[in-house]
Amino acid sequence: MSKGFETQEVVDQRQTQFEVARAAYIAAQARVDSATAARNANVHSAEVIRVNIADSTLVAPREGPIQYRLANIGEVLGPGGRVFTMLEMSYVYMDIFLPTTEAGRIALGADARVVLDAQPGLPFPAKVAFVASHNQFTPKMVETKSERDRLMFRVRLRIEPELAKAQPALLRAGLPGIAYVQLDRQEGWPSFLQPEATSWLTPP
Fold this sequence. Notes:
Layout: H1 8-56, E1 66-69, E2 84-86, E3 92-99, H2 100-103, E4 111-116, E5 123-131, H3 145-149, E6 152-159, H4 161-166, E7 177-181
Antiparallel strand pairs: 1-2, 3-6, 4-5, 4-7, 5-6
């Protein structure tokens, strides 16, 4: 003992303690590995759930009010099935038809005004966005000038996107009205269609 020796019994006890501690360490490490695997599995499951939620969430391609609901909760739809119809307030327009003499004088971007039947005293400023290159309701054979004068061309008047977004309650799909197109800028607008009459519509 004085020379630093231990009995075999003490050595065996300490060896046993070491083996117990080593077994406890291995068991603890196994529990850590199991917990890590469980955590990784839960993280993966959470990612799958997030992906499924994202795939199952309806996202509108642009801003605009919902017009019709076509499917009810719990209804099964096929690929590409429609759930809602919505209005694209960034593209609000009115199509009008003009005879050849007027349609031929209209330039793209020309000023226009749209007066809805529901808002007779409120002219909405617009621009000419499209003029058809072919006449509508054309007879098969057009030979005389009088027939040519009766031909109608489709003209699209687009209301400014900022204005349409600022006044969604007033500008709704399907509302009838009257449109005015400025053929000659030098003539100007009549008083009820002057820019001052539409200043209240300008978004802030």
